[in-house]
UniProtKB/TrEMBL annotation:
It holds the Pfam family EII-Sor. Keywords: Cell membrane, Membrane, Phosphotransferase system, Sugar transport, Transmembrane, Transmembrane helix, Transport. Its main location: membrane. The chain crosses the membrane at residues 40-68, 80-98, 110-134, 155-177, 197-214, 226-254. It is found in: Cell membrane. This is PTS sugar transporter subunit IIC. The keyword Membrane applies.
Amino acid sequence: MVINMFQAALLGLFACLASMPGMGGTSIGNYTLGRPLVAGLVVGIILGDVTDGILVGMAIQVVYIALVTPGGTVSADVRAACYIGIPLALIAVKAQGLDAGSTEAAALATSLGATCGTLGAILFYGTATINLAWQAMGWKWLEKGDTHKLYLVDMVLPWISHIICSFLPTFLLVYFGGDAVNNLLASLPMDGVPMKTLFAVGSLLPCVGIAILLKQVITKATDFLPFFFGFTLAAVMGCNLIAASAIACFFALINYEITSLRLKLDKVSAAGPALSAASDDDEEEDI
């Protein structure tokens, strides 16, 4: 697979859009275009291989499934993992002749994606640093009363930051990096220690993403049961995500009905002594 200049430019553009708050807020930009699963579709369309793009995006998505950035602290840049890691992973998978849905391809994709994501953190902080200059200009305009110029700070000037720290790195790495990946993998035999190590490390990375997610949602031991039940549906009954989601909605409805009934019973129980006391007062008055 060879990435031409036009494809590299499109990938660089989507790398900018994935991190631009102006793209309908972070909902459309960061939390949609910037997710590996969605980016896999976008990259697949641009490179002409939608199926493999989505499969590679799925593998990388598991690694970053629970990534959060509290207070702007970023350990990895998902934008780089998406629009640099996924194209390079596709090239690597094609170069090795692997099936994109295989375990080996997923391990290779997660390794490259995680590497790009970690290096991309530098790009994230570079963007934030350049944006400080635009904010300083905005404060000066605000002090002078030129409030109409604040739109430049929000919608126009940040494009300069993203062109420097998103578009250009993505364009250069995916355009020139493909040959480097091909040459590197060509020099490493599949049964050699380097490739086996890469596959082993890549296979462990999804466990890290799932472990972080569990740490956020598990508060007691019984919370593991729904988690394991979902894996049981997929492994034993062969349910896909849509079927598992439908079953989950059914159980969520049952849980909602039980919880609502319990709350009603608690209210009746709490009101019982008060009603009993009022009844006793009425009887005493009648006597």
